[in-house]
């Protein structure tokens, strides 16, 4: 039986390697996990090996794996109707819009349903330009907003560099100081960040700028923190110049940071919110763009030029409604805040043990450990946009993590820590024990 299982595992992996393409990866020499099923914070392969999922898939499976309440909600909806055109309505669509309006602050009461994070961003960009009559979009270097053409251009992520010649026009990027490597005193960090942005706005012409697009909390770029008070200052600048503020909550939304949305830690209310990931937790592909009543009112008597064949898909709406219910009934947002504090305490202890841990940046359960070769110089274990030859140490660390029974997102010198929001203290200890053993490899390279 064991031989048959192993053989089945190899056949499944080989079929995928032979007949499918893998995102953001060279296609030869990869060794994916053949996942058979998942439950809570764990994934299981066809050899019955268990992996603790410490990045919630791609920071999206917030409620955990295998929750049959979503399955039941999807089946109920499909037994009624599986698809209607966006010009028709369903009970699930209206209820979901109403529920999202109740959890969003301010007058963010109108939902335009999309297919994923990238399509939420694309429609936010399009709507901002249409509403304001302006053309430029300002975004941050070291950010990620999706892999479609506009969203990728908006990103400040180096994955876009290979397709730079095909980038969309009228995007302007600005930089934000990284507090971990800022050498000029914390009191000057906010000042420099704001003054730098003011210069960019002046150079580009405020009357040309439709919107500023930012992540609610930084994600795959390294969980880079905003200077304290920065988003409040930026929001004020937007209001001063009539610039819309779009918050990308695709990764940081839906309890991931210990609040419904990451921007809520900063005391602001944007004009639009792009959502996906935690809206259905990956059980079905789905997204949403929440729009203020102010913006929506322009289209009361004007045609709204946005549309998608699968907008407001009834089955996805049903999955999202059930997902939002689970956040509340299972107290997952409160648990994310509590477990985030526990995670921070435990990583502080790991810092005492491992000289290669340079920094841990975290909000709720959205965090990453940055490994360095030298704590004084803060030279990273692998540089920004590292070439394959520069990834030797981190590849060893990542391989050890997988061998010890963990699935998590690793990138450059970062090990991401973002388990499902249902995680317990015992499971955090289990995961950090694995990471600790793997980091011991990097310790040997500390100068």
Can you characterise this structure?
- Helix 8 (230-241) links the parallel strand 7 (209-215) and strand 8.
- The chain folds into two domains: 33-63 and 331-443, Aspartate Aminotransferase, domain 1 (Alpha-Beta Complex); 68-329, Type I PLP-dependent aspartate aminotransferase-like (Major domain) (Aspartate Aminotransferase, domain 2, 3-Layer(aba) Sandwich), CATH 3.40.640.10.
- The strands form three sheets. A seven-stranded mixed beta sheet has the order 4-10-9-8-7-5-6, with helices on both faces. Strands 11, 12, 13, 15 and 16 form a five-stranded antiparallel beta sheet that branches. It has a four-stranded mixed beta sheet with strand order 1-2-3-14.
- The protein is built from 13 helices and 16 strands.
- By secondary structure, the chain is an alpha/beta fold.
- The protein has helices spanning 2-19, 56-59, 68-80, 91-103, 117-132, 149-154, 186-204, 230-241, 293-297, 314-329, 332-353, 392-403, 425-443; strands at 35-39, 42-45, 50-53, 108-114, 136-140, 171-174, 209-215, 244-248, 272-275, 287-292, 357-363, 366-374, 379-380, 406-407, 410-411, 414-417.
Question: In terms of topology, how is this protein built?
Answer:
Elements: H1 2-19, E1 35-39, E2 42-45, E3 50-53, H2 56-59, H3 68-80, H4 91-103, E4 108-114, H5 117-132, E5 136-140, H6 149-154, E6 171-174, H7 186-204, E7 209-215, H8 230-241, E8 244-248, E9 272-275, E10 287-292, H9 293-297, H10 314-329, H11 332-353, E11 357-363, E12 366-374, E13 379-380, H12 392-403, E14 406-407, E15 410-411, E16 414-417, H13 425-443
Parallel strand pairs: 3-14, 5-6, 5-7, 7-8, 8-9
Antiparallel strand pairs: 1-2, 2-3, 4-10, 9-10, 11-12, 12-13, 12-16, 15-16
Helix pairs in contact: 3-10, 4-10, 7-8, 11-13, 12-13
């Amino acid at each position: 039986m064991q031989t048959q299982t192993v053989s089945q595992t190899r056949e499944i992996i080989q079929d995928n390697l032979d007949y499918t393409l893998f995102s953001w990866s060279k296609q030869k020499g990869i060794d994916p996990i053949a996942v058979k099923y998942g439950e809570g914070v764990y994934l299981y392969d066809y050899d019955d090996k268990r992996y603790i999922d410490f990045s919630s898939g791609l920071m999206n499976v917030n409620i955990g794996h295998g929750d049959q309440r979503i399955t039941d909600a999807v089946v109920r909806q499909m037994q009624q109707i599986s698809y209607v055109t966006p010009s028709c309505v369903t009970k699930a669509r209206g209820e979901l819009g109403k529920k999202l309006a109740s959890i969003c602050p301010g007058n963010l009461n109108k939902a335009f349903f999309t297919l994923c994070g990238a399509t939420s961003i694309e429609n936010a960009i399009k709507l901002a330009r249409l509403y304001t009559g302006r053309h430029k979009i300002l975004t941050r270097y070291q950010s990620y907003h999706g892999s479609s053409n506009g969203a990728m251009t908006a990103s400040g992520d180096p994955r876009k560099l290979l397709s730079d010649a095909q980038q969309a026009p009228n995007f302007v990027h600005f930089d934000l100081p990284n507090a971990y490597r800022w050498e000029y005193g914390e009191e000057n960090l906010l000042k420099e960040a704001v003054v730098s942005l003011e210069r960019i706005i002046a150079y580009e012409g405020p009357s040309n700028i439709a919107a500023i697009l930012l992540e609610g909390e930084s994600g795959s770029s390294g969980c880079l923190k905003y200077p304290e008070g920065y988003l409040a200052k930026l929001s004020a600048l937007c209001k001063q110049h009539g610039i819309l503020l779009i918050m990308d909550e695709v990764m940081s939304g839906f309890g991931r940071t210990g609040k419904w949305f990451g921007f809520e830690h900063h005391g602001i209310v944007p004009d639009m919110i792009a959502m996906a990931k935690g809206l259905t937790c990956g059980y079905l592909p789905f997204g949403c763009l929440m729009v203020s009543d102010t913006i929506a009112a322009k289209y009361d008597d004007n045609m709204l030029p946005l549309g998608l064949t699968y907008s407001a898909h009834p089955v996805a709406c049903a999955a999202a409604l059930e997902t939002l219910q689970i956040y509340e009934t299972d107290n997952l947002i409160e648990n994310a805040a509590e477990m985030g504090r526990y995670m921070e305490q435990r990583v502080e202890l790991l810092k005492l043990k491992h000289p290669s841990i340079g920094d841990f940046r975290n909000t709720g359960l959205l965090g990453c450990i940055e490994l360095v070769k030298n704590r004084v110089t803060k030279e990273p274990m692998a540089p920004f946009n590292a070439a394959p030859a520069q990834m030797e140490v981190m590849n060893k660390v990542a391989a050890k993590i997988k061998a010890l029974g963990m699935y998590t997102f690793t990138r450059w010198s970062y090990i991401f820590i973002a388990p499902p929001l249902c995680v317990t203290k015992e499971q955090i200890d289990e995961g950090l024990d694995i990471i600790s053993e793997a980091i011991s490899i990097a310790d040997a390279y500390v100068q």
